[in-house]
Prior knowledge:
It is built from nine helices and seven strands, in the order βαβαββαααααβαβαβ.
Amino acid sequence: MTDVYDLHCHSTASDGALSPEDLVIRAHEKGVTTVALTDHDTVSGLIAAKNQANALGINFINGIELSANWQKHCLHIVGLGIDPTYQPLVAITEYLQNLRYERAERMAAKLEKKKIVGVLEAVKLAAGDGMITRTHFADFLVSQNHVDTQQEAFDRYLAQGKSAYVATIWPELLDVINWITGSGGVAVIAHPLRYKLSANWMNRLLVDFTNSGGQGLEIITSRINQDEIRLISNYAKKYELVGSVGSDFHNDSNPYVELGRIAQLPAGITPVWSLLSVS
Ligand code: AMP
Ligand code: MN
Ligand code: MN
Ligand code: MN
């Protein structure tokens, strides 16, 4: 059987539509043989997902996608092979849950000024015990017909600089890498082209990242083209970083983003799983 890896996806523990169990079931249905659950700033879905993976006989990797501040950019750092019981990591997820709650209160207040009411209650309900994310706000704005799509919700209200945007002081990149590596994990820069960094800034980032113990770049995501894959691969080679692959699946609203629906790593790239014990 061919190995199919998907090392970046979300469940209801953050802004995914499926429970951790259902996410793993879907991954299995889509032919994924090794899956990592990487919810935003939380490890709360990992035990349920791992149990489901064991029941189905597919490999599971403990993961997280941590929000990080670097030079005023919000970066997403995927941690793979982390120990979810590592105390500093547990502590930071608790801190981030509060930070996200406070941000949600401030975002809701901004929307109330625009006569959009009931937001905080709705996003709290939708997030349940999980992390409150801007995706929950987008879904609410769609459900109340303030916008037609999630994308429009970001474009009109939620993206940086828009009326409901609240600047958040995320943990520093160096600390984020240390929590991941300290727990035995590998730190990977998620979707590296999404930060719109110039080549100059990308090189600065990768110098800082590697000097801080970062080890990987997510080379393959859904909706990436060959030129982009080549560009990221060249950075990976230049900085001797391993390559990761992940769909960043959240829900089934986009047919181009599906668990396991991702290209192969290019030749000459060391796969991140060479650094991980997969079970
Ligand atoms: P947060 O971490 O709460 O700021 O939320 C970020 C999440 O919002 C990302 O992980 C995406 O899932 C989602 N997101 C960000 N930008 C967009 C966008 N333009 N369209 C749709 N979803 C987005
Ligand atoms: Mn997300
Ligand atoms: Mn991300
Ligand atoms: Mn993600």
